[in-house]
């Protein structure tokens, strides 16, 4: 799970928050409610997650709390991979 968190965090720091210190983005930082992810960056993150981890993210899941923190994204990926 730490590998998933690291990849997601790297993506966010590179593509959503370039120049931001990694120390300022914790695994439990709310990404949507804090305004870090807008609709476009959420879409880009979902595309990254689907390609990187070879899963399909449903629209319902994309709009849920599954994509509100690095912790929740990692848990979502693990659950999707386990479900096959």
Automatic annotation (TrEMBL):
Gene3D superfamilies: ACP-like. Residues 2-81 form the Carrier domain. Transmembrane segments: none annotated. This is Carrier domain-containing protein.
């Amino acid at each position: 799970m730490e590998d998933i968190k690291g990849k997601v965090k790297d993506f966010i720091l590179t593509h959503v928050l370039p120049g931001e210190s990694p120390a300022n983005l914790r695994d439990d930082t709310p990404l949507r409610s804090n305004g870090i992810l807008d609709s476009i960056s959420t879409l880009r993150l979902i595309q990254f997650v689907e390609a990187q981890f070879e899963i399909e993210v449903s629209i319902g899941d994309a709009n849920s709390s599954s994509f509100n923190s690095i912790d929740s994204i990692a848990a979502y990926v693990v659950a999707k991979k386990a479900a096959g």
